[in-house]
Write a structure and sequence with these properties.
The complex is a heterodimer of chains A (about 775) and B (about 130).
Chain A lengths: L1 H21 L3 H5 L1 H11 L2 H5 L4 E8 L4 E7 L1 H24 L6 H20 L3 H19 L6 H32 L4 H6 L1 H5 L4 H15 L8 H4 L5 H7 L6 H14 L3 H24 L3 H22 L2 H32 L15 H15 L5 H13 L6 H22 L19 H19 L1 H17 L15 H18 L1 H14 L3 H23 L4 H23 L12 H16 L6 H21 L3 H22 L12 H26 L6 H14 L4 H9 L1 H23 L1 H11 L4
Antiparallel strand pairs in A: 1-2
Chain B lengths: L1 H19 L4 H22 L24 H32 L25
Helix pairs in contact in B: 1-2, 2-3
Classes of the chains: A mainly alpha (about 775), B mainly alpha (about 130).
């Protein structure tokens, strides 16, 4: 299982080489892997249908409870099969669609990486592994959406998708870790088996909101729906893959997976039903407003995702079955229709609905695929889409639920019915339209995927028992967390759901008839409104503005400003914890020791005079006074080595200082006005006070002498030295001392360099005529 | 005794902060000098103070007698003194060279790396 998940990543590395070696037919070679994966996953169908589940675990970071564990049940198997099966055709399709494209090899690399990430995501059992693959899908989809990286719109769409889904991913991580904390396990299968523990915990609401933030951003629920249509900037194979069965379904997958653990509560129902319902209507209305085939499909994808979330919210048996059935149906018909839209674009040079007509005769295979898929999408019998829609109504018409839910579902479905006919039939009938170039049918790779998926939509409708036993049934059982008796059928007698379907078709036909007028009217209304897409721009502009403001405030280019910021930060870090955490200390009254007081006084006077002196000579002497008093302190408190070193170094420092300071101009002024003087003095006093306070409070606590005692005890017995300080320096911490010597050497070389380069500097100045 | 020296350390830090906030390169250098001494003294005080008994092992003994000064901070300070001297020497020469090349010791006027944005000339300049 680990090998199956990682195989796409491995092949991705070699994809560009395969492309270079095999040329444009590389798609046929690379498609072997997803085809093989489909067969591999298919062997689980039988056992999973009979109720078995499989766990495959490999240790990763055992200390943190992170393992590469994979879990196969009805839900993950359904997704894994859709990903690998549709992926097979997408690879073929991409090979044909991007034939001759210079970066086709890179495209294959990205799409295979994405496929691996998706497989990992739906199969993961460990929450951390799940998160890693979740973010990998965000990153690889960023690469795919931004594939045409020379177009600014592509770059914006890619970044937008990454910001929205990646941001949601971070919320998801927090939610998953909280869940693991509550449930005491990193494995989803364990966590979800004890759903009541999660639901009754006081953190339940926090967990729910965080997880939903991840799911809603990924699955483009209102108000995060804007990134999905923008992502249509990607080449069509990407759209067909990401927006039918994979990327955007990841959020729905997450909800379905979490249902046994987090679902079923009132708040879950309210949030999911309201967000899902609104998304369904918004997506369907926006679909009718557009006239670009791909954008229309993208918006119906938003609507379908809304419907799925809505159904997950209802959470009753029929609703869950409906969600799985609709998900299955949607993956097939939407994948097919996206590929059709790409083929039409490829064959005619436009995707504009108004310019496309009469293509049926020249593009027979594409037209057939489009027709079949559109019939399934519009929910007409005997297609699988019809069964899915019947089950949606069975779910909403469950006696206890308000009728408005059914009304929402009917309106959404009717709008999608209209869009299905607009996309699937309108371009192929009537007189040939005025297209940029003469329409022609694409090569085999361009229509084989669409046709296969479209035919399957019909097949599963006619043989619904097959879909029920192997796909929808096991998935619904996994989502519900308890055994369900799933029984899909085409015709269940003239009951309420059939009536709802008839209303849907009638309403849909009306929308289709009036589509031109409706679309124009919607365009006028919607474009005038503020939308989240504009909000996203405003948000990003605001972030950049904030960053610029912070930079302007903090980084003025004035050294003293940097110093000020540093000191204020330091003061805050020093003072705030002491104020809030320290429980005070007893100030020890020092005994009167005339020698110490005398040296202290010398140091205080010497130091205090420094800022006020206006003469260089005085400054140099005051430095000497300070250095000397510190040396005296060292001498007085049992540190003769320090005192000697200090004396030598201070002498040397003062000599060098004298040499340099004599060559620098005007010493007296430092360009500080009165207000700045006061401000700087306050900051300085704050720093000094904080340091003194820190030191006083630390010395009031007991000192841990373990290390000092260690050195004292071992100095002679192990290193044969009687001066403990020296032994520490040259023996116990010899490497440190070596580093110190290196620093001195480097400083010396740097000084030499500075002085040596003087001549070069001067020479170049002379050439340019500078007056320096 | 720690109390007296802790207050002295506080004063040294305050003076060095005041000097470092200056626009004059010379005062900045003095500030670095004071800062070094303040830090050394602080580490020294943190190791606690013991009068006139250096960390030495007497002849005939294998380990130090109790009551000696804490050797560990002394070793650390010894390293620190040498390094801060290197820094100080380098800084002095660098400042001297900067003055030679830029003809100023006012850090506000040293704008080669971060030129003044147009329209905000001398915005932050006092006096």
């Amino acid at each position: 299982m680990l090998a199956a998940t990682l195989a796409p990543f491995v092949l991705a590395v070699f994809a560009p080489f395969v492309r270079r070696r095999v040329g444009d037919s590389a798609g046929w070679v690379l498609a072997v892997l997803p085809a093989g994966l489909t067969l591999y996953f298919a062997q689980f169908l039988g056992p999973v249908a009979s109720g078995e589940t499989f766990v495959f675990a490999t240790e990763w970071v055992p200390a943190l409870g992170i393992s590469l564990s994979f879990y196969v049940d009805g839900l993950s198997l359904l997704f894994a099969l859709l990903i690998s099966f549709i992926g097979t055709f997408i690879v073929l399709y991409a090979g044909a669609y991007l034939k001759g494209h210079a970066d086709l090899g890179r495209f294959f690399m990205f799409i295979l990486m994405f496929m691996g990430s998706m497989l990992g995501l739906v199969l993961s059992d460990n929450v951390v592994t799940l998160f890693v693959f979740w973010e990998l899908t965000s990153i690889t989809s960023f690469l795919l959406i931004g594939f045409n990286h020379d177009k600014p719109r592509s770059r914006r769409a890619a970044l937008q998708a990454l910001v929205v889904t990646g941001g949601g991913g971070l919320a998801l991580l927090a939610g998953l870790l909280l869940m693991a904390q509550i449930g005491g396990s990193m494995e989803l299968s364990t966590l979800l088996a004890n759903g009541d523990v999660l639901r009754e915990h006081p953190w339940y609401l926090a967990v729910l909101i965080l997880v939903l933030a991840g799911a809603f951003t990924k699955s483009a629920q209102v108000p995060f729906h804007f990134w999905l249509p923008n992502a249509m900037e990607a080449p069509t194979p990407v759209s067909a893959y990401l927006h039918s069965a994979t990327m955007v379904k990841a959020g729905v997958y997450l909800l379905a997976r979490m249902n046994p653990g987090l679902g079923g509560t009132e708040i879950w129902q309210i949030i999911l039903m309201s967000f899902g319902g609104v998304t369904l209507l918004v997506g369907a209305i926006l679909a009718l407003r557009n006239t670009d085939l791909k954008l229309m499909l993208a918006q119906t994808t938003v609507a379908s995702l809304g419907l799925l979330v809505f159904l997950m919210g209802i959470g009753e048996d029929y609703a869950i079955e409906a969600a799985m059935a609709y998900l299955f149906a949607h993956s097939m018909f939407k994948g097919a229709l996206f590929m059709v839209a790409g083929s039409v674009d490829h064959g005619t040079g436009t995707r504009e609905l108004g310019r496309l007509s009469g293509l049926g005769r020249v593009m027979p295979f594409t037209a057939t695929a489009a027709g079949l898929a559109a019939l399934s999408m519009s929910g007409l019998p005997p297609f699988f889409g019809f069964i899915a829609k019947e089950w949606v109504y069975k779910g909403t018409l469950d006696g206890s639920l308000p009728l408005i839910l059914t009304a929402v579902a009917i309106t959404g479905n009717a709008l999608m019915f209209a869009v299905a006919f607009l996309v699937g039939f309108k371009p192929f009938f009537g007189e040939p339209g005025d297209t940029p170039h003469k329409p022609h049918e694409g090569s085999l790779g361009l229509w084989v995927g669409a046709l296969t998926l479209a035919v399957l939509s019909l097949f599963f409708g006619l043989f619904s028992g097959f879909a029920e036993t192997y796909f929808v049934g096991p998935a619904a059982v996994a989502v519900a967390g308890i055994p369900l008796a799933v029984d899909l059928y085409l015709w269940g007698g003239f009951k309420a759901p059939v009536v709802a379907s008839i209303i849907t078709v009638a309403l849909g036909a009306f929308f289709f008839w009036q589509s031109g007028r409706l679309s124009a009217w919607l365009a006028r209304v919607i474009d005038a409104l503020w939308g989240p897409d504009k909000g996203y721009d405003q948000f990003m502009d605001g972030m950049i503005g904030l960053a610029r403001w912070v930079t302007d405030v903090l980084q003025t280019g004035y050294l003293r400003r940097y110093m000020l910021v540093t000191f204020l930060t330091l003061a805050a870090v020093l003072v705030l914890p002491q104020v809030s955490l320290s429980d005070g200390f007893v100030l020890k009254t020092p005994p009167f020791d005339p020698l110490v007081w005398a040296i202290g006084l010398l140091a205080v006077v010497g130091t205090l005079a420094i800022p006020f002196t206006r003469s260089r000579l005085a400054a140099i002497m005051l430095m000497g006074v300070l250095g000397l008093s510190v040396a005296f302190v060292f001498l007085l408190f049992g540190a003769p080595d320090l005192a000697f070193t200090q004396l030598m170094v201070e002498t040397l420092s003062v000599v060098i200082l004298a040499l340099v300071i004599a060559r620098l101009p005007v010493f007296g002024t430092d360009w500080r006005g009165k207000p700045r003087f006061v401000g700087d003095a306050v900051v300085a006093a704050l720093i000094g006070g904080a340091m003194a306070y820190l030191l006083l409070s630390i010395t009031a606590t007991p000192l841990d002498l373990t290390l000092s005692e260690f050195f004292s005890a071992r100095s002679y017995t192990e290193a044969y030295g009687r001066n403990i300080v020296n032994v520490i320096l040259v023996d116990f911490r010899a490497l440190d001392t070596l580093g110190e010597i290196a620093v001195v050497a480097i400083a010396g070389v740097a000084v030499l360099g500075l002085l040596a380069f003087r001549h070069i500097d001067r020479a170049s100045d002379d050439k340019t005529g500078s007056t320096s | 005794m720690e109390t007296v020296l802790a207050l002295l350390v506080g004063l040294l830090f305050a003076i060095s902060a005041y000097l470092l906030l200056s626009s004059s390169l010379i005062r900045l250098i003095l500030g670095v000098f004071v800062l070094g001494n303040a830090t050394h003294l602080m580490i020294f005080v943190l190791g606690r103070l013991t009068r006139e008994s250096p960390p030495l092992i007497q002849y005939g003994l294998k380990a130090a007698e109790p009551g000696i000064a804490n050797p560990l901070p002394q070793a650390l300070i010894l390293t620190a003194i040498v390094i801060s001297f290197s820094l100080f020497a380098f800084l002095l020469v660098l400042s001297y060279r900067a003055y030679q090349s830029l003809d100023t010791i006012n850090t506000d006027e040293m704008r080669v790396a971060e030129p003044e944005p147009a329209g905000t000339l001398l915005r932050g300049r006092d006096v």
